[in-house]
Amino acid sequence: MSNVSNTMIPVTILTGFLGSGKTTLLNHLIQKHPEKKFAIIENEFGDINIDNDLVVGADESIFEMSNGCICCTLNDELVVVLRDLLHSGKEFNHLIIETTGMAEPGGVAETFVSDPGIQSVFKLDATICLVDAAHLLPVLEEREEAKKQITFADYLLLNKKSDTDDAVLEEVKTVLREMNPFAQIETVDYAASENNLLALDAYAPRETVDNVAQAAAHAHSHTHTHDHNHDHTKDVGSHSFTFSEPFDFMKFMHWSNVLLKVQGKNLYRVKGIMNFRGEKQKMIFQSVQTTPAFTRGDDWQPDETRETRLVFIGKGLKRSAFERALRNCLAK
Question: CB of 74 within 8 A of CB of 131?
């Protein structure tokens, strides 16, 4: 059996396109948090670029480092790698997964909300996306993966700010807010964040309530259509909906399952605070890839307006079709 603590192990996913600074951020996190015993999963160990002097031993595909961290390669299904880590006998209290520059993080995150065995041990904390401020706009013109990385992120690190013209930096920030109204944006150099990126708790109910309110306000104050001001994101937009009538849980659950299976390729992110008929508590709804995730939030207060707020981010989404479908899910 593993020596892992009985408490839930937080998981941080690092993503970002090639050359954005993910490895620099990884090394920064290791140095900034010497109290942590990290387990690090990499797509390819050879790409880590952690000082070889830190590697003190290896057991099959798991590398042990002198700073107390362990590292392994993603050379099999993620579930298999996670179980190998848990049964390795090595202690760790935080898991970091660094994806390749061409990878979409949604598939990685889905493992932590769709597998009950994994859910009993690991807690998804946040997905952090590194963005190369100087080169983002041309990358968005060419690479769909970069758009998906940005829209799925809970936190956006806008890297290499000193190498970027101020006007370009402001344009990039605007583009990022339009693509992902959920995420907090921080501008940095050398991927050195001033915040604690290991405790973002992005999937916690209260954090999500604030997050949805912020995204809904942004979506209402901007026009997100194909007549976009920025060619880089003209096919990616967000739609916000507010309903005062309660929803029927079974109708909405069925619709969201079908929606994510059918539209999953073009639907990048969904978050919502749901008012279901007969429920005393707020229900938090999020999509992770093609998996819907429901968690209970705080009770509705007597002086609080009970309403549903939903925000959808995706490519080529038709607002009218979503509104019709959502109205069909209302409690009659």
Answer: no
From residue 111, alpha-carbon distances to 108, 214, 262, 289, 293 in Å are: 6, 27, 19, 10, 12
Rounded to an integer, what distance in angstroms lies between the CA atom of residue 271 and that of residue 311? 6
Do 127 and 266 belong to one domain?
no
Cβ contact 28:192 at 8 Å? yes
Range of the domain at 126: 9-187
CA 207 to chain CA centroid, nearest Å: 13
Last residue in a domain, options 154, 187, 220:
187
Spans of the chain below 70 pLDDT = 1-6, 43-61, 65-67, 75-76, 101-102, 219-234
| Secondary structure tally for the chain: helices H, strands E | 10, 14
Q: Are 96 and 70 found together in one domain? A: yes
| Residue-level pLDDT at 5 | 47
Q: What is the pLDDT of residues 242-258, one digit of tens each?
A: 999 999 999 999 999 99
Q: What are phi and psi of 71, to 5 degrees?
A: -140, 145
- Global pTM value: 0.84
